Amino acid sequence: MQFYHATPKIGIVQSDIVLQKYSGFVEARDMYEAKIEQYKESFEIQKELYESKKAELDLLSTSLKGDALVKKEKEVEGMKVTLLKLGAQIEEHSKDREAEIINSVYNKVNDFITRYGQNEGYDVILGATGNGNVVYSSTPVDLTEDVIEKLNKEYRNGI
After folding, report:
1. For 77-114, what is each residue's pLDDT tens digit?
2. Dihedral of the CA atoms 87, 90, 93, 95 (nearest 10)?
3. Where are the alpha helices (H) located in the chain, listed in sequence order?
4. CA-to-CA distance for 87 and 129, rounded, in angstroms?
5. Who contacts 15 (Cβ-Cβ below 8 Å, separation ≥6)?
6. What is the pLDDT of residue 2?
7. Which has the closest alpha carbon to 10: 110, 120, 106, 109?
8. Contact 80, 50 (CB under 8 A)
9. Segment 70-75 mean pLDDT
10. What is the CA radius of gyration of the chain?
């Protein structure tokens, strides 16, 4: 008994290009960058306030004595600690938010490519990242532009 095996339908998607051109990723990245800019501005305001109080302390340190000097030094040191904590919180939140956005986009793209492959009759779709995992493909199996077009259409339609 002989079995007939059809040649599998295989396609390649250039993952990095899909992400660069996916409207959902571009929009999410822009929103993320705007939020980071707000954090930076907030941090800069706090930093300027701290630097102003530090300069004030430096000027007054010769005229202030005893408890007044200690109180002013504690106030400035407290501002410094608060500023450092704020910087650490901003950095941590930024990393968390970036990871959340990236994971969300990857999940949406991977889900779309799975559905695309099923709808278009592909047996295998390989992701090319530019790191050498796919070293050659003929143009007909490169699905990147079609995937980008349909993925963005789906995104615009709110699916």
Report:
1. 999 999 999 999 999 999 999 999 989 998 999 999 99
2. -80
3. 15-21, 23-60, 66-120, 144-156
4. 34
5. 109, 127, 128, 129
6. 60
7. 120
8. yes
9. 90
10. 27
Exposed (0-12), middle (13-18) or buried (19+): which is 101, by Cβ within 10 Å? Answer: middle
Residue type, 50: Y
- Flag whether the pTM goes above 0.85: no
Residue 76: both structure tokens together:
């400035």
**Helix (H/G/I), strand (E/B), else coil: 51:** helix
- Which residues, at least 6 apart from 82, have a Cβ–Cβ distance to it below 8 Å? 46
Q: Which residue has the tokens 């960058």?
A: 33
DSSP code for 142 = B
Coil, strand or helix at 147: helix
**The tokens of 85 are what?**
């904590």
Average pLDDT (66-87) is 92
pLDDT band at 148 (very low <50, low <70, confident <90, very high): very high
